[in-house]
Design brief:
Elements lengths: L13 H18 L4 H14 L5 H7 L2 H18 L3 H12 L4 H18 L2 H19 L4 H15 L7 H10 L3 H26 L8 H8 L10 H19 L1 H4 L3 H17 L4 H13 L3 H20 L1 H12 L4 H18 L2 H13 L2 H4 L6 H14 L8 H12 L6 H28 L1
Helix pairs in contact: 1-2, 1-16, 2-16, 3-16, 4-7, 4-14, 5-6, 5-7, 6-7, 6-8, 7-8, 7-22, 8-10, 8-22, 9-19, 9-21, 10-23, 12-14, 17-19, 18-19, 18-21, 18-23, 19-21, 21-23
């Protein structure tokens, strides 16, 4: 729970100062005049320098489980990619639809949504985006619509399971809700949202996409088997990925956090990959592996976590949540709808992880009002749907969005904040409206 606002540097009010730092930080990020990692770290430094947080509080505000998950899966993907596995997947999937741009986009989006449910959505975009860039380059089409669709698909798919998105991991850890409970209660809503989203993307971009016949013919001549360049590494990578996925599914039972699982898998795969080679070769290989980690994204999150922890500590998030709960007048359904919509809108503006972390104890405190903890389950589904789908609203709304943006920027296809916002936010609001109807029909009717 956040603390009440206190006094900081020069006697300024912590609530107003932390809010101003957040607004300025986000404003500069939106302007895109300074790299987002730099401005986030500057904002975090100002939070500490002005006394809004001390160093220990700032470190406590960083979600190291999320960072470990990101880094671990980035390493696994970086090594696995060297086997040719993902090139194989890209060629196979696109050839199934005769290399036509819109069906290829739809196929990759479906794969992204499904993998985001079985893996986590950040891992999935790390797998899909590089091969998407290869395919779009070969087809001579702009990659932006593909990447846009995959961002939305990753967050929609990630909504459906316990391990699909960090907010769900937080909720599951706090409540004991199982993988199967998330799947049964949230997967149908995610499916409805996906089915409504893709036709709109088709109308905006898909129907206009064309590829030269010679480009399609060139892709159709690809031999996906030839894409596998290292069968030994492929077998090692598949074995590690399988174990990591199984551990994600069983994480609650074996008592391990996803971040620990991802780093453990990364360590094992690095060991297997480097074991046969000399020390000099190992050093070269590890430099290459760690060089493929999206450190700009990682350090952006470090800074952003601290900036958001400042407003959380000062009481802004608690204040907003308290206003929302008071406004519902104690009505259970209205409380659920308020959680759904506020989680969506705020998760599009402020990273959904600290917001969910703040909302969890507030919802738990409502147990006596609504008849016990077991009666709160629909509120957890409302929070999960709002926080996960709300991440689609802006480029900084979810980890997967920033991961895609980092990969795209590195490939020379930057995704701009405002153009993404103008397209994504209305689609996000539509997905929340669908979720509202779903909650009414299955939980609040």
């Amino acid at each position: 729970m956040p603390h009440e606002a206190g006094q900081v540097l020069f006697g300024w009010d912590a609530l107003w100062l932390s809010s101003a730092i957040l607004v300025v930080t986000y404003g500069v990020i939106i302007s895109e005049r300074i790299n987002r990692a730099v401005i986030a770290l500057v904002g975090a430094s100002v939070v500490v320098a002005t006394g809004v947080l001390d160093q220990q509080q700032a470190i406590a505000g960083i979600d190291f489980n999320t960072l470990a998950l990101l880094i671990g899966m980035m390493i696994i993907v970086a090594i696995s990619r060297q086997s040719g596995l993902f090139q194989y997947v890209a060629i196979w999937s696109v050839k199934r639809v005769k290399a036509r741009p819109w069906p290829a986009m739809l196929m990759l989006s479906v794969v992204t949504a499904l993998f985001s449910a079985l893996l986590d959505n950040v891992t999935t975009v790390l797998l899909i985006v590089p091969v998407t860039l290869v395919i779009t380059e070969e087809l001579k089409v702009t990659p932006y619509p593909f990447l846009f669709a995959e961002i939305l698909a990753s967050n929609i798919g990630g909504t459906s399971t316990l391990i699909g998105d960090p907010p769900n991991i937080l909720i599951g850890s706090a409540t004991g809700l199982t993988f199967n409970e998330f799947l049964v209660n949230l997967a149908p809503a995610a499916a409805f949202v996906f089915a409504a989203t893709m036709p709109i993307i088709y109308l905006i971009w898909g129907r206009k996409l064309t590829a030269p016949a010679e480009a399609r013919a060139r892709v159709m001549k690809f031999n996906e088997i030839e894409a596998i360049t290292d069968w030994r590494l492929l077998k090692q990578a598949l074995a590690v990925i399988f174990v990591v996925i199984a551990a994600f599914v069983l994480a609650h039972d074996i008592g391990m956090e996803p971040g620990s699982i991802a780093l453990f898998g990364a360590a094992v795969l690095m060991l297997l990959h480097n074991l046969p080679h000399s020390a000099e070769h190992q050093s070269h290989t590890l430099h290459k592996t760690f060089g493929e980690v999206e450190w700009i994204t990682i350090f952006f999150f470090v800074g952003l976590f601290v900036v958001v922890a400042g407003v959380e500590h000062a009481g802004l998030l608690k204040m907003l949540a308290d206003y929302m709960l008071v406004a519902t007048g104690g009505d259970f359904a209205m409380t659920g709808y308020a959680i759904l919509w506020s989680a969506a809108v705020l998760s599009a503006i402020v990273d959904n992880i600290p917001f969910v972390a703040t909302m969890i104890p507030l919802i738990q405190s409502m147990a006596p009002t609504f008849g016990g903890e077991e009666q709160l389950t629909p509120l957890w589904w409302a929070l999960a749907l709002g926080a996960c789908l709300g991440g689609n609203g802006t480029l900084i709304g979810a980890s997967a969005n920033l991961t895609v943006a980092g990969l795209a920027e590195r490939a020379g296809h930057p995704i701009r904040f405002v153009p993404f916002l103008l397209m994504a936010f209305p689609l996000m609001m539509m997905s929340v409206a669908i979720s509202h109807v779903y909650m009414y029909l299955f939980f609040f009717d």
